[in-house]
Fold this protein.
Amino acid sequence: MKTIIDIKSLKKDYHIGEVTVHALRGVDLAISQGEFVAIMGASGSGKSTMLNIIGCLDRPTDGNYLLDGVNVAGMSKNERAAIRNLKIGFVFQSYNLLSRTSALENVELPLMYNPAIGARERRERAMAALEAVGLTDRMDHMPNQLSGGQQQRVAIARSLVNDPVVILADEATGNLDTRTSYEIMSLFQELNARGKTIVFVTHEPDIARCMTRSVVFRDGHIIREEEVRSRLDAAKMLRAIPVEEE
Amino acid sequence: MNLGNLLKVAIKALKRNKMRSFLTMLGIIIGVASVITMLAIGQGSKKSIEDQISSMGSNMLFVMPGTMRMGGVQQGSSASQRLTVSDADAIRAECHAVIAVSPEVRSSGQAVYGNSNWPTTIYGANEQYLEIRSWEVVSGRNMTDSEARGSAKICLVGRTVADELFGEGIDPTGETVRFRSIPFKIIGVLKEKGQNSFGQDQDDVIIAPYTTVQKRILAQTYIQSIQMSARSAGESALAQQQVEEVLRRTHRLREDEDNDFSIRSQEELATTMTSVTEILTILLGAIAGISLLVGGIGIMNIMYVSVTERTREIGLRMSIGGRSVDILLQFLIESIMLSVFGGLIGIVLGFGASSVVEALTSWPISVMWGSVFLSFAVCTLIGVFFGWYPARRASDLDPIDALRFE
Ligand SMILES: Nc1ncnc2c1ncn2[C@@H]1O[C@H](COP(=O)(O)OP(=O)(O)O)[C@@H](O)[C@H]1O
Ligand SMILES: [Mg+2]
């Protein structure tokens, strides 16, 4: 399989006054197309820093990073913005939907920053993305009219709409209850089954078991990397959890 | 992001906070409306003064004896400083830029008809006087050249004199009125002019041949002033120069001697009078401009609040591919829109306020298109200027920090 992410001896330092924080201390990581990688580790171990660099939101202090065959480590701010627009899809813990803006418009947003895509194509692709997350009937709803799980689905649709080479999720189930978490994981598994490459930061082992590989960080190093054996089927888990009585 | 999308995003953002957007615009609305109204009032009062001055005569020039100082006329008493009929004749003969010349002598006294009497002023002049002073005869006729030179006991009366002596609206042509006991036959009535800008009633006059007033009433040979019309407004300065040359010669002034007369033009008078209103206009406009500035600062303030409130939105937009310039433009366009929409409403309001003032003052208030365009341009500039720093702050944010912002 094609290598989507190829990272070698990546370092990231933060300078706060006199103090230097070594958030990443030399990380090698390769992710192939179609993988569903869990990034795990304790709080402060460097997971988010890693994900932000993979997503070209941040630049490494040192090291090499090829994304989809392109060296992005030395890119300018604007070049990185263009890469994010075309090749990356982000899903955040707190959804980050625009308030008082319909689900459809929220999903359209990334395509607004792509001058090659017209209004009509934008709408069509956004509708298709909402359909893929099962929210066709909620297109015109505002975020405050949607449940947390539904909002996260809208966010996932938004991350899909530009057909990225990789979807990056940082604790995407962190704000959700167990049941809704599995619903979201089931959706991610579905997307992965259709070939999407996904990198997913979580500290919950059960959630990580829904993926194909797990990478564990500690103090800015990868301390363990393994294929997930006995992978969980999120849809099956969901059926096992009783629906809570209201 | 292209311009169409940017505009859409800006309109949406403003709609999301309708009340706040409106209150922010209010500063600009009031500022623009007051700039437009103040300038219109200034322009209106200037125009009303100009109208009144032009009703005094057409391209009028006048010569007075003595040197005119800032405070007024320094009347000379020596004979050499006096103006005479031959001065007026010399001007008429030699100054090509002057098309009408009349001597003027005046005297005040009681006009009497039957039991009625009325204190008024008699002006001694010739047949060109009416043309110079833009008078029209509504009934009867003007005097002739020979009447003017030949001490004819005739006169023209203004509407006020006619009303006071003969009764409201009555045509006294053909009647005889006495002024300082001298009988004058009324040959015509002057068209009504109304008050001048000093509040004087311009219709409270009697006009008679200058020779008659000189001999019968004043018993003097000199004249008080010479009134003239230049051929056109453009030739006013030339006429002034020609008159000066002629008078210096007839008064036998040496090279090194100052003029013993002063020439003033209607234009100068107008300039002096309107300069006051111009200063007033500038003052009013400046005060209004300050409120526009305050409006701009209001926009800046709200834009800062808005940037802070929407820090996460900014982070999100950056994470999905928004470049710094996209974010900058987004906020800049928002502030330009606030200011331009406010400006448009202000313009409409300014027109409304101007017509209210017009109705109240009966000044010929006219909204200057220049001030409309100016306000519009200033609003756009205000939007850019006061939106720039908040927008820069937004576009300089680090996407990760912005996304994490609580
Ligand atoms: N912007 C920053 N400035 C300074 N230190 C930071 C910054 N971001 C992260 N760090 C530090 O880097 C380390 C890794 O943080 P992070 O990647 O957020 O950890 P995780 O996501 O695994 O909890 C932590 O020690 C954190 O304090
Ligand atoms: Mg984290």
